[in-house]
Amino acid sequence: MAEVKLNGISKSYDQGKTWIIKDVNLEIHNGEFVAFIGPSGCGKSTLLRMICGLEDITTGEMHIDGELINDHPPHERQVGMVFQSYALYPHMTVAENMAFGLKLARADKSIIKQRVDEAARMLQLEPLLERKPKAMSGGQRQRVAIGRSIVQEPRVFLFDEPLSNLDVALRVQMRQELSQLHRRLKTTSIYVTHDQVEAMTLANRIVVLSPLQPGAKTNLEQVGGPLELYHHPANLFVAGFIGSPKMNFLNAELQQPGEEWSTIKLTSGETLKVAANTSSSACGSQVIIGIRPEHVLLLPDKKQDQTEKDNTVIATVSTLERLGSESFIYLDHDSVREYLIVRVTGSGLQNENDKLGIHLPPKQCHLFSAEGLAFSRTHKPELNTCQS
Amino acid sequence: MAMVQPRNLKYRVWYARIALWLFLALILFPFLMIISVSFRSGNFATGSLIPENPSLEHWYLAFGIPWENPDGSVTEPFFPVLLWLWNSIKVAFFSSILVLMLSTTGAYAFARLRFKFREHMLTAMMILQMFPAVLALVAIYTLFDKIGDYIPWLGINSLGSVTIAYIGGIALHIWLIKGYFETIDNSLEEAAAIDGATPWQAFRYVLLPLSVPILAVVFILAFIASIGEYPVASILLHSMDKLTLAVGSQQYLNPQNYLWGDFAAAAILSGLPITIIFLACQRWIVGGLTSGGVKG
Ligand SMILES: Nc1ncnc2c1ncn2[C@@H]1O[C@H](COP(=O)(O)OP(=O)(O)OP(=O)(O)O)[C@@H](O)[C@H]1O
Ligand SMILES: [Mg+2]
Fold first, then answer.
1. Which atom of ligand 1 is least distant from the CA of A46?
2. Residues A10, A120: one domain?
3. Which residue in A102, A118, B233, B240 has the most C-beta neighbors within 10 A?
4. Complex ipTM above 0.85?
5. pTM for this one?
């Protein structure tokens, strides 16, 4: 149990010519479960490896329990790590794998046995204790890897995409086991993943990292609780990264800034109202409006030609993805940045090239400045939004 | 194999078999000849493969037992062949162990550590190894001559000097072991480090046990090389009781009198320790030792 503090942590593999991680400041509290999430190559694993000492820290300070550990080799840091590749010792049995660290620490035989048995019971590995890793399935191996760090009772657990080699069903099961394990042990945990579902379900707080853009001050985008990231993304990157399918973005310009309500005009001409505080921005500045596919409302067919309802946009259906219980409708519209997706429950009875009227509820819209920073939302988002 | 085979497969298999048998005969023939010579009475290099009048004469002499000729005269063994064999085994065994220790640690450095001129040193070692050791004979001789002034058991005409001299040729072994180390996923040692292992402990308890097959191979190779080595041993060793079998058996071939039969018996004897070492090491040479540790 410990708290981990990252202070201006940066990493460069080539003496400062290019940076992989820049100026990450983070405080992880005692007993917290934190997930690092970000697209591939953004430096999640690198950051984790710096915490456990497998990679040196280029600049910045790292503290565990108030102790500066920048220059401590891994074996002095008392952290446990579960690798994506399991990294079990192939020549040792499961029991030996788990006991290895304690044996090195010259722990008492009885203590070793007790801890190994306890971990094996927790992870349902008891019947496998005498097996070699070769003779086990991926899920079992991953459990052994987890058990190996549990028996050491480390100050911090580090997980580097521990479930990414498992199939979907097993992943769901292991996810729940990990969550139970954390509730029981309450050890500070850091969990790297690029699977949002894992991050959202396991973590108390999520750290979103992005690949470092040239000129950017940091690649730490936002830190916050799962729902906070979903409802209040701090910038375009987080807004686009959290949630699946991605949030829709439409280009617009600010027509009438306001403290509670702002009026904007899409590049294609429609005027929309958004519950966001834009009082700091000038009239006419470029903005980006964002709305999640699950928040866009379809207007009933009959009403389509009726007098314009507020916040309504007419768009053409380009593709349909029908998944049975829900469908994704891809729409074409002039002001859309990439594509405009609407999620509807049911089997999506629309046809391609239909013209559809969609409603963007003002309280569900996000507004971003041209630099990509979010304007704060002024109304609590409504939670029930899906329609058929 | 369920693959569809051409119809004339049967003939082709027979052609292949015959070719292989011929090839095998070509390789085995010299060996059979040496065996034959060693059982032939008298010292003749040529003769039929199955000796006309077989005798154990040369084997008696090789084992140091006087041989009574049919005419009643007794031939005393000329040379202490068994002692030479023992010398060979000692030198080969200790030099192979030293070779193994040095090349394993060296290979670890090249495979796992990052340091300046790493690549250059690897190539340089390889190139230096390409010069035959014979070219360095003078240097080796004077070196050990000088060393002998201070440490007598490492001087000229000592088994210690030969043992040390044989350690010279480890570049190849370093390359071999380094290649094997590099197939073992680095994350195993990283996991060990996180489990609290120092780099030495990670090497000793994780990397080494997984590398046993290549270590056995290197040991055998080093052993074979030093059992058969002639040039260096021949200039470092002089007195009758210090020779290795490879050097000693040349004594049978003095220009006045080629004792082919005795030579053949000694040659076969020198194969004995190699065979034993090979059989002993064979059980370490197994595949699949590293499987199951990592995925993806
Ligand atoms: N030893 C190295 N030398 C130079 N660059 C490296 C090294 N290791 C990693 N990188 C670079 O650092 C960046 C971050 O790598 P990292 O493994 O941390 O990504 P990641 O976020 O874990 O990605 P993934 O989700 O694919 O695992 C990558 O762009 C990679 O090319
Ligand atoms: Mg990674």
1. 18
2. yes
3. B233
4. no
5. 0.83
